[in-house]
Amino acid sequence: MTMKKIISVLAMALLVIGAAQAQNQVRNMVIRQNDGQALRFNTANIEEVTFEEVAVPTTVEEAEAMLVGYWRVCFDFGSYDIEGLYMVITEDLTVYSVYKIANTVSDEDYADYAGKYLATDDDIVIVNSEDPTMATFSHWATFIKNLQENSFIEVDGYDESNYFIYERVEPFEYVIPDYGLMKNGLMKNGLMKK
């Protein structure tokens, strides 16, 4: 066998071995965060990677305006009676916890609210003047951090590893037992804002 044929056969063998190994490997994209955690994604499942600018508040006034609205917590309660948790923050920075009650409930206390959004536990949110991406609640033992235009994190004041991520959602009707039905509007001092 000539040297040319030997090199050709070796090259073919290496290509076959390389192709076989490539079929057994999975390529991951690894994103390392500044807290040391690494997120891994199988590149076969990624269609597109984009970067977007996210508005964050730089003043207390910007943060207060950004907080006003309807927010959904990204968490599965696994409860038969509660389908989701929301937070409504009004223009005067009053905070309502809003529970989406299931259509069929086992607890008779929720029977009148089946299929509705029930608001409870009003509080006031206070923006941190030194860091407007953070805020505290006047009564709750949790606080807001990483406030952005369409998301924030609610963190347990005693255990920061216990947190919830909130995302902005469209307005919805909700019931406050003392005031009745709020129709796609934000409350201000207990009255419907026109």
Report on the structure:
The protein is an alpha+beta fold and 194 residues long. The chain folds into 2 domains: 3-45, no CATH class; 60-192, Lipocalin (Beta Barrel). It contains 2 helices and 14 strands. It has helices at residues 3-24, 60-67, and strands spanning 28-32, 38-42, 69-73, 82-89, 94-101, 117-127, 135-137, 142-145, 151-156, 163-169, 174-176, 180-182, 187-188, 191-192. It has an 8-stranded antiparallel β-barrel. Strands 1-2 form a two-stranded antiparallel sheet. Strands 11-12 form a two-stranded antiparallel ribbon. Strand 11 and strand 12 form a beta hairpin. The longest helix is centred in the first third of the chain and has 22 residues, at 3-24. The protein is elongated. The termini are far apart.
Write the layout of secondary structure elements.
Layout: H1 3-24, E1 28-32, E2 38-42, H2 60-67, E3 69-73, E4 82-89, E5 94-101, E6 117-127, E7 135-137, E8 142-145, E9 151-156, E10 163-169, E11 174-176, E12 180-182, E13 187-188, E14 191-192
Antiparallel strand pairs: 1-2, 3-4, 3-10, 4-5, 5-6, 6-7, 7-8, 8-9, 9-10, 11-12, 13-14
